[in-house]
Input
Amino acid sequence: MSRSRRVLVIDDNVDAAESLAQLLELSGHDTRTAADGTRALRLAENFQPEVVLCDLELPGLSGYEFARELRSQPYGAQIILAALTGYGEPADRERTALAGFNAHLIKPVDPAVIESFLDDYG
Output
């Protein structure tokens, strides 16, 4: 198991975001959720997450816009940022990397893959 982290889960599918947050909490992580990019940016500033798991298709700011804006903030440079998406083509992965994501995880993501991801960035 990875060490406890502050994790922000962003997904416009509220049930999916809350379910993932609950799984992460069972592993000892402190979580928050947001359903749109604009709220997520405000929440990130206040919560100061160590890790963000972000869907790409969001209302308000898209996941790509969220990532670019997050990376432009003084607190955002060191956050571990993973795209959580159904898009998995090479061009999709390139686009997330260019937006500032550290990783590209394909939905549905096995919880063990998330824990492995958190361990890798420990």
